[in-house]
Amino acid sequence: MKHTLAVLVENHPGVLSRVSGLFSRRGYNISSLVVSETEDSSVSRMTIVVDGDEKIIEQVTKQLNKLIDVIKVSDVTHDETVDRQLLLVKVNADNSAKGEIAQLMDIFRARIIDIGKKSLIVEATGSEEKIDAIIKSLQPFGILEIVKTGTISMVRGAK
Fold it and tell me: Tens of pLDDT along 48-62?
Protein backbone atom coordinates (compact mmCIF):
# COMPACT_ATOMS: atom_id res chain seq x y z
CA MET A 1 0.00 0.00 0.00
CA LYS A 2 1.20 3.51 -0.77
CA HIS A 3 1.63 5.81 2.21
CA THR A 4 2.05 9.57 2.12
CA LEU A 5 4.31 11.13 4.72
CA ALA A 6 4.45 14.87 5.38
CA VAL A 7 7.82 15.62 6.96
CA LEU A 8 8.84 19.04 8.28
CA VAL A 9 12.61 19.49 8.41
CA GLU A 10 15.17 22.19 9.09
CA ASN A 11 16.05 23.94 5.82
CA HIS A 12 19.78 23.08 5.79
CA PRO A 13 22.14 21.54 3.22
CA GLY A 14 22.34 17.75 3.47
CA VAL A 15 18.94 17.15 5.07
CA LEU A 16 17.42 15.70 1.90
CA SER A 17 20.38 13.35 1.56
CA ARG A 18 20.05 12.13 5.15
CA VAL A 19 16.31 11.54 4.82
CA SER A 20 16.49 9.75 1.48
CA GLY A 21 19.50 7.76 2.73
CA LEU A 22 17.43 6.45 5.61
CA PHE A 23 15.00 4.92 3.11
CA SER A 24 17.68 3.46 0.82
CA ARG A 25 19.69 1.92 3.69
CA ARG A 26 16.59 -0.01 4.73
CA GLY A 27 15.73 -1.05 1.18
CA TYR A 28 12.50 0.98 0.93
CA ASN A 29 11.70 2.54 -2.41
CA ILE A 30 10.43 6.12 -2.52
CA SER A 31 7.70 6.40 -5.18
CA SER A 32 7.57 10.18 -5.00
CA LEU A 33 9.52 12.89 -3.20
CA VAL A 34 8.78 16.62 -3.33
CA VAL A 35 10.64 19.17 -1.20
CA SER A 36 10.18 22.92 -0.85
CA GLU A 37 10.38 25.73 1.66
CA THR A 38 7.31 26.41 3.77
CA GLU A 39 5.86 29.74 4.82
CA ASP A 40 8.84 29.82 7.23
CA SER A 41 12.05 29.93 5.14
CA SER A 42 13.97 28.05 7.86
CA VAL A 43 11.67 25.02 7.44
CA SER A 44 11.15 22.75 4.43
CA ARG A 45 8.34 20.30 3.85
CA MET A 46 8.96 16.92 2.29
CA THR A 47 6.04 15.00 0.84
CA ILE A 48 7.20 11.40 0.55
CA VAL A 49 5.14 8.62 -1.03
CA VAL A 50 6.46 5.17 -0.13
CA ASP A 51 5.17 1.61 -0.56
CA GLY A 52 4.86 -0.49 2.56
CA ASP A 53 2.58 -1.94 5.16
CA GLU A 54 1.69 -0.24 8.45
CA LYS A 55 4.60 -1.89 10.28
CA ILE A 56 7.17 -0.62 7.76
CA ILE A 57 5.72 2.90 7.83
CA GLU A 58 5.74 2.90 11.64
CA GLN A 59 9.42 1.86 11.60
CA VAL A 60 10.33 4.52 9.01
CA THR A 61 8.46 7.18 10.98
CA LYS A 62 10.36 6.28 14.17
CA GLN A 63 13.68 6.39 12.31
CA LEU A 64 12.82 9.77 10.71
CA ASN A 65 11.94 11.22 14.11
CA LYS A 66 15.44 10.26 15.35
CA LEU A 67 17.12 12.46 12.72
CA ILE A 68 18.22 15.73 14.29
CA ASP A 69 16.96 17.94 11.44
CA VAL A 70 13.45 16.43 11.44
CA ILE A 71 10.86 18.60 13.17
CA LYS A 72 7.68 16.56 12.61
CA VAL A 73 6.56 13.46 10.71
CA SER A 74 2.90 12.91 9.83
CA ASP A 75 1.44 9.93 7.98
CA VAL A 76 -1.43 11.59 6.11
CA THR A 77 -2.42 8.44 4.20
CA HIS A 78 -5.74 8.02 5.98
CA ASP A 79 -6.48 11.74 6.40
CA GLU A 80 -8.75 13.69 4.09
CA THR A 81 -6.25 15.41 1.81
CA VAL A 82 -5.93 17.40 -1.39
CA ASP A 83 -3.30 15.69 -3.57
CA ARG A 84 -1.85 17.13 -6.77
CA GLN A 85 0.85 16.54 -9.36
CA LEU A 86 2.17 18.89 -12.04
CA LEU A 87 2.79 17.63 -15.58
CA LEU A 88 4.65 19.12 -18.53
CA VAL A 89 4.45 17.01 -21.68
CA LYS A 90 5.87 17.73 -25.12
CA VAL A 91 3.87 16.04 -27.86
CA ASN A 92 4.23 15.73 -31.63
CA ALA A 93 1.77 18.09 -33.30
CA ASP A 94 1.67 19.05 -36.93
CA ASN A 95 -0.78 21.79 -37.95
CA SER A 96 -3.67 19.35 -38.36
CA ALA A 97 -3.18 17.81 -34.89
CA LYS A 98 -2.83 21.06 -32.92
CA GLY A 99 -6.57 21.80 -32.92
CA GLU A 100 -7.45 18.25 -31.93
CA ILE A 101 -4.95 18.30 -29.06
CA ALA A 102 -6.24 21.70 -27.90
CA GLN A 103 -9.83 20.38 -27.77
CA LEU A 104 -8.70 17.27 -25.93
CA MET A 105 -6.77 19.31 -23.36
CA ASP A 106 -9.82 21.54 -22.76
CA ILE A 107 -11.63 18.46 -21.49
CA PHE A 108 -8.89 17.97 -18.89
CA ARG A 109 -8.61 21.70 -18.11
CA ALA A 110 -4.96 21.49 -19.19
CA ARG A 111 -3.17 24.38 -20.91
CA ILE A 112 -1.00 24.55 -23.97
CA ILE A 113 1.94 26.68 -22.86
CA ASP A 114 4.25 26.42 -25.88
CA ILE A 115 3.62 25.97 -29.59
CA GLY A 116 6.43 24.93 -31.89
CA LYS A 117 6.43 24.10 -35.59
CA LYS A 118 6.06 20.37 -34.93
CA SER A 119 5.24 20.10 -31.24
CA LEU A 120 3.22 21.46 -28.31
CA ILE A 121 3.96 21.59 -24.60
CA VAL A 122 0.99 20.95 -22.34
CA GLU A 123 0.80 21.87 -18.65
CA ALA A 124 -1.63 20.16 -16.30
CA THR A 125 -2.23 19.75 -12.59
CA GLY A 126 -4.40 17.21 -10.88
CA SER A 127 -4.61 13.87 -9.19
CA GLU A 128 -2.33 11.04 -10.22
CA GLU A 129 -5.26 9.46 -12.05
CA LYS A 130 -5.94 12.63 -14.06
CA ILE A 131 -2.27 13.03 -14.97
CA ASP A 132 -2.12 9.40 -16.11
CA ALA A 133 -5.29 9.89 -18.20
CA ILE A 134 -3.79 12.95 -19.93
CA ILE A 135 -0.61 11.07 -20.76
CA LYS A 136 -2.62 8.13 -22.12
CA SER A 137 -4.77 10.46 -24.28
CA LEU A 138 -1.66 12.09 -25.79
CA GLN A 139 0.22 8.85 -26.58
CA PRO A 140 -1.39 8.39 -30.03
CA PHE A 141 0.10 11.73 -31.14
CA GLY A 142 3.60 10.73 -30.04
CA ILE A 143 5.00 11.91 -26.73
CA LEU A 144 8.45 13.43 -27.07
CA GLU A 145 9.19 14.24 -23.44
CA ILE A 146 7.49 14.08 -20.04
CA VAL A 147 8.37 15.89 -16.82
CA LYS A 148 6.15 15.59 -13.78
CA THR A 149 6.40 16.28 -10.11
CA GLY A 150 5.72 13.79 -7.46
CA THR A 151 2.62 14.09 -5.36
CA ILE A 152 2.12 17.05 -3.07
CA SER A 153 -0.47 16.64 -0.35
CA MET A 154 -2.19 18.87 2.18
CA VAL A 155 -4.68 17.84 4.87
CA ARG A 156 -8.04 19.51 4.35
CA GLY A 157 -9.22 22.09 6.87
CA ALA A 158 -11.92 21.30 9.41
CA LYS A 159 -15.43 21.90 8.13
Answer: 999 888 888 899 999
